[in-house]
Design a protein that fits this description.
The protein is α/β, with parallel strands linked by helices and 331 residues long. It is 32% helix and 24% strand. The strands form two sheets. It has an eight-stranded mixed β-sheet, sandwiched between helices. It has a four-stranded antiparallel β-sheet with strand order 2-1-4-5, with helices on one face. The radius of gyration is 21 Å and the shape is globular. Bound molecules: adenosine-5'-diphosphate and magnesium ion (MG).
Length: 331
């Protein structure tokens, strides 16, 4: 482990898709740092490159059409992008695990949940069947599945959506990974179940002191889970900050508009106030700052010059030419 508990460092990561219509720059020069026992929330609108960032870290980008074209992904100082596929397979699951929005992408409908967790353990660890089975039961109990020993014999379809999600989490954590990537794990669930799963993840993270990358498009979920936040727009990180100062005073115009898109009036499903303008096509990005066509503060420089992520206040990074003036300009 590096200084300050840094476990995973993503540096200058770029992943592109080579399609018939052109090159989609889905992830562009992304820098992220995950720390032991902390959750980094990655937030942004649909299509901005969140999942591709996660898949790049796991080296699961479909190739072709995708390709990681630059950067490093360092786990304890080792660049995962240089590992052989066999070495990478042993990293996945044992050191870095991932959970998805749809549990059935991880669960196989034709095997019992017990046998699937046992399999997940035995891929990485030389355990006897009995020991692996004990671990599986223990994991089911850890994710608070009632009657875990009996539940081992259930098939995925016999479980509710929330329970399938818990089983997927049990499987992901069965080998005690140092890093967990959670890609919108609660987006498909209703609010009550969502908040149960979020508090379960919170609990497990504290207990296992994992580093978590939590991906969501929902600022309310970020508020509940993240210690630090990275805001993504059209393939790049536009703002990075600890969660409290970010919520108190967002410094990028896009972050500010994202906050206004949180549904007000309580009830979920109430209309979202959307941000004016279109998300740019990743095939034909605007010149200069890629947010400028939608930005209420854009001026000439924003059209010409791409802003870099720079420290504007203590521990706060913003990629905006007007970050210093935002308080006066945007109320
Ligand atoms: N399999 C693919 N083929 C071509 N382009 C892709 C593919 N997967 C992702 N992309 C491109 O990457 C962009 C980012 O996708 P993604 O990371 O899934 O967004 P999200 O932020 O919603 O998770 C998409 O808008 C699309 O342009
Ligand atoms: Mg996604």
């Amino acid at each position: 482990m590096g200084q300050n508990g840094e476990v995973l460092k993503v540096r200058n990561l770029s992943t592109h898709f080579y399609t018939g219509a052109g090159v989609a720059k889905a992830v562009q020069k992304v820098d992220l740092t995950l720390k032991r026992g902390r959750t980094l929330g990655l937030v942004g609108e649909s299509g901005c490159g969140k999942s591709v960032t996660a898949l790049s870290i796991m080296r699961l980008v479909p190739e072709p059409p995708g390709r990681i074209v630059a950067g490093r992904v360092e786990l304890d100082g080792r660049n995962l992008l240089e590992l052989s596929e066999a070495e990478m397979r042993s990293v996945r699951g044992s050191r870095i695990a991932m959970i998805f929005q749809e549990p059935m992408t991880s669960l196989n409908p034709v095997f019992t949940v017990g046998s699937q967790i046992v399999e997940a353990v035995r891929v990485h660890e030389r355990l006897s069947r009995t020991a692996a089975r004990d671990r599986a039961v223990e994991m089911l109990s850890t994710v608070r599945i009632p009657n875990p020993a009996q539940r081992m014999r259930s098939y995925p379809h016999q479980l509710s959506g929330g329970q399938q999600q818990r089983v997927m989490i049990a499987m992901a954590l069965a080998c005690g990974p140092d890093v967990l990537i959670a890609d919108e794990p609660t987006t498909a669930l209703d609010v009550t179940i969502q908040s149960q799963i979020l508090s379960l993840l919170d609990d497990l993270q504290a207990r296992l002191s994992m580093a978590v990358l939590f991906i969501t498009h929902d600022m309310a979920v970020i508020a509940q889970t993240a210690d630090d936040v990275a805001v993504m727009y059209a393939g790049t990180i536009v703002e990075r900050a600890p969660v409290k100062p970010l919520f108190n005073k967002p410094l990028h115009p896009y972050t500010r508009l994202l906050f206004r898109s949180i549904p007000t009036g309580g009830a979920r499903g109430s209309r979202l106030e959307t941000i004016a303008g279109q998300v740019p096509s990743l095939l034909a990005l605007p010149t200069g700052c890629r947010f400028h066509p939608r930005c209420p503060l854009a001026f000439e420089r924003c059209v010409k010059e791409e802003p870099v992520l720079r420290e504007v206040e203590d521990g706060r990074l913003v990629a905006c030419h007007r970050a210093g003036e935002i308080e006066e300009l945007m109320k």
